[in-house]
Design a protein that fits this description.
The protein is mainly alpha-helical. The chain has helices at residues 3-10, 46-61, 69-78.
Length: 84
């Protein structure tokens, strides 16, 4: 048994509230929680704004907080960019 387990077991001041697993909740779908680029795009150029919005849309659609390089590449390619 770890020291933390012992503290929890014998400490009566610790509330017995269950852990709230937010991953199981459906009320946060579509929230701004998954935005990677902050709360505003006003300081970005038009192409950067388009990319940021596409990334945010991808993350919401696929319920991802962060995306991999491969996923970023697929978002960029869907916007029509390709290596020249």
């Amino acid at each position: 048994m770890s020291q933390f387990d012992t503290m929890l077991r014998y400490n009566t001041d610790v509330p017995a509230t269950p852990f709230a697993d937010r991953r199981q909740r459906s009320d946060n779908v579509g929230s701004n929680e998954r935005r990677q680029f902050g709360n505003s795009y006003r300081d970005h150029s038009a192409p950067a704004k388009e990319l940021a919005e596409a990334i945010d849309a991808y993350k919401v659609e696929h319920r991802r907080r962060y995306i991999t390089a491969e996923e970023l590449l697929s978002v960029i390619e869907k916007l029509g960019y390709h290596r020249g």
